[in-house]
Amino acid sequence: LKKPTFSSKSVLLMHMQQFKNDVILEPVVQWKINEYLTWWLASENGQAYVNDVINKVKNRELVDGKLKVEDTTSEAPPYSRSPPPLAIASPRSPRGKRLSEKKRTHSTTKTAVSRESRLITSQSVEEIPRFYFPFGQSHLDEQSCSLLKENIQSYFNTLSRGRAHIGDMNVLTKLCDCPLYWRVPLFQKANINGQVYITAEQFIFMWTGIIERNHDEESRFVALLSKSNRKHLLPQDFEPLLQDVVNSHPGLAFLQEAKEFHTRYVMTVTGRIFYTVNRSWSGKITAEELRRSNLLNTIALLGEEDDINKITHFFSYEHFYVIYCKFWELDSDRDLAIDRQDLYRHDMHSVSERAINRIFQGSVSRTIKKLTDKMNYNDFIWFIISEEDKRTPTSIEYWFRVMDLDGDGALSMYEMQHFWDEQVQRMLRQDYTEILMFEDILCEMMDLVKPVHPDYITLGDLKNCKLSHVFFNTFLNFKKFLDYQNRESIGASKSDEEMGEFLASDWEKYAAEEYEILVAEEGIQDSYASYEDDFDVIDSQKKSLQPHANGVVIEKLDLQSLVQD
Question: What pTM value is reported for the model?
Fold first, then answer.
């Protein structure tokens, strides 16, 4: 078979199928379009047209504030009259002149519609008001800004040599209408030279720059604490503010002599802040996340409330005391990290071993694998709060990730049975007479959660369920599962929640109970002070953390062996 010769390369690139002695050529549309475009760009008319458009862009010929570019949709580009040579005629060419006229009519109509749509779109854009303000809406005018500068300058004029030290920041914080404990971040942000003082020019330049770009409290807080003008906050950004709370808050005065525990308190508060506020689990708190939280209101409350334990969100010392003591009890080798065997002992081995294995596989934390199968203190904060309060959005996401073995965003019957099998094994080891079958538990949980799809449970289903803690405890905590099974009636529990009688969260109730137990243990140890040498080292050294009701430390002991930085 003698193959024909073609002048166009694209025609050669055709799908060829050989059936016996025949050769069937099928044209590829995209190749043909590319061929026409390449031919047109190489022609004199095409190059002249492109150069003309480029020159207009360079000269920035504007009409009503917009770049003037000729409307090329009304007429076809200046093609040459003769088309490129074709070896094979198009199979659609027999349709003739009527089809060509129809295409031209359709092109003209389409051009008119496109012009009208562009006009309508332009008018609509101008009429739609702005609705997204990532840095808040501006309410600052020139008069109020000038008045603020005058007040700041007047205060600096009253200071010695016109310099403000850290002790002078209370007045400046009030002048800026900021909470009291913003004072250290304000001082550090203005102190670009690393001196022990700041000048009026430094402070005014810093603060006016922040309020001119950031118009609400949340965006200003991010700009104030973040380094290098980041749009988010990292854990280390909170350290100056929290250290100021430790150093100056009346409710933490007893902690001044225990310097070693300052870092632990700051770490605990930071961990709780990210646990509650950082809903994206990114490790970066944004202004939008701050707007959805009560963090800034709680920080403002620190300057008004002297009893730190009444501020149960984030800053309660009693909550820190409970978390740190629980961690210390599990940290058997005192390396400030716990492994699987240590975590198994939490709450008398009540947490499922399969759940703990999932945690150490990195299902809820990126740092556990980096620590070679170890859980650090920050990861333990997330664990214990999630374990004791399974009603919050973060805890629901925490345990959902643990149970979602395949990571498909849905808990299947297989995954629920995987965790239920361990609960059955525990019941068998403890000689329970009535062993609940998985089918019965599955029906009970489906009725409890009421998922949208009958075959699996999603994260949204659990967040919409008021008894999500019951669901997770059934599969992941043997002790709490038995407590729920021995309840008098589930109806009473539902009615209490609907009436809003549980004002305190599960975590707050747990922390209060555990703190009372720890205080009682300290009282027993005090009554046998003569036998103190027989006690464990940690039991005796807990006293340095335990304040009296009047805020005085019971006993100051050597803390170096207790805290190993």
Answer: 0.71
